[in-house]
Amino acid sequence: MTNKQKYIDILSKPGLSKEVVExxxxxxxxxxxxxxxxxxxxxxxxxxxxxxWGADLSGFKxxxxxxxxxxxxxxxxxxxxxxxxxxxxxxxxxxxEAERKFLAxxxxxxxxxxxxxxxxxxxxxxxxxFTDTDTGVKEHPEIFKKWFGKVVPHTDNKYAALNTACWSxxxxxxxxxxxxxxxxxxxxxxxxxxxxxxFERTLIVADEGAEVQYVEGCTAPTYSTDxxxxxxxxxxxxxxxxxxxTTIQNWSKNVYNLVTQRGLAHENATIEWVDCNLGSYKTMKxxxxxxxxxxxxxxxxSIAVADGVQHLDSGAKMIHMGKNTSSVITTKSxxxxxxxTSYRGLxxxxxxxxxxxxxxxxxxxxxxxxxxxxxxxxxEIYEKATRIEHEASVSKVSENQLYYLMSRGISEEEAGGxxxxxxxxxxxxxxxxEYAMEMNNLIRMSMKGSVG
Length: 452
Hints:
Elements: H1 3-11, H2 18-27, H3 32-47, H4 84-92, H5 97-102, E1 105-110, E2 113-119, H6 121-125, E3 129-132, H7 133-139, H8 141-147, H9 158-166, E4 171-175, E5 185-190, E6 197-198, E7 201-206, E8 211-219, E9 227-229, E10 232-237, E11 242-250, E12 255-265, E13 270-277, E14 282-285, E15 288-291, E16 297-307, E17 311-320, E18 326-336, E19 340-349, E20 356-366, E21 372-381, E22 386-396, H10 399-406, H11 412-423, H12 425-428, H13 433-446
Parallel strand pairs: 1-5, 4-7, 5-8, 6-9, 7-10, 8-11, 9-12, 10-12, 11-13, 12-14, 12-15, 13-16, 14-17, 15-17, 16-18, 17-19, 18-20, 19-21, 20-22
Antiparallel strand pairs: 1-2, 3-4
């Protein structure tokens, strides 16, 4: 039996062990430093208890999860070469053909491997790197090793450790000094295997004065058994750089979605997270920015829609460390049919981070009498020269609004959909147009039968 076949046999079985983690690394022919990091992360994952705060994870068992699916084919570089079943999935995701042809870059991850990648020659000629993370660790070791695990170390939390141990795929982006990527780079993650854990790892580095936008979409069909998605995203914006990271997540209602997203903003840099959570069974996700440089800025705009059995525990974290830093957190949540949303946020201003400016806005919309929404804001302010604003509101669909719209000949269901669309408009307007349309359509579909 060859070593490759040996690894395939080990990885085809469910459950996690040191042997599985080592086999993932060896099957990918990774450098020894990455194998060692994976094994350290595995030990930390095994030692760390399951969180008892946030969404209830007590029902999840990882014994039946397959932690890696060996890819069956090499990554494609031409759309014509992509298998028909994969093209069909793109069509189901409503990704227009014209958009596929003219994207600045696309990475698509099915289960554990990236199967389709394309990059516009314009950006490649300027030194922009946009590839899958597995390629990044081998072909760009200087940049990759410098930043991998530095923003989100494996000791950060239990599921960051699990991701570091089992990661596969994801995107690696490097934008050189002064380069501004005008069209968003885009990625799609899709779970098509039952009992699968998907652990993509994304690292984006914008060098001094560079700018880049990155958009990812996530989806999964519904299976009768639980699926785990545990991604880690690390952003590094060096002096004067700007990164905007947008997620539209529409996992099916059997997915445990446990994600760690964090950015490092240096002097005069800006990091923005636009986070749309429209699916999953349980979600725990808190995009964060470490404002380490003077005059740096962080922003989070997020929306969560919980329906029925769903509990979406999401929010944001802003850590002010440099002087004259600023941050804005804007969250919108909708719950219906017994769903539950929770905002969990942390704002921390360390001693010496003078003139920090913070604004937090949390708005929740409840569509019935059996759903629940909670707000857990934490403010740790250790510097007197700070200005912080926090406001929160909880409301229901107004009968007066419904009556007014219905008096204009609009049905009650359509009227409710319009009110909800207006509620999420501050988030939608920040999305590229086709994604704003997709998000509004998804919300409108989920609103059927929710009002009236």
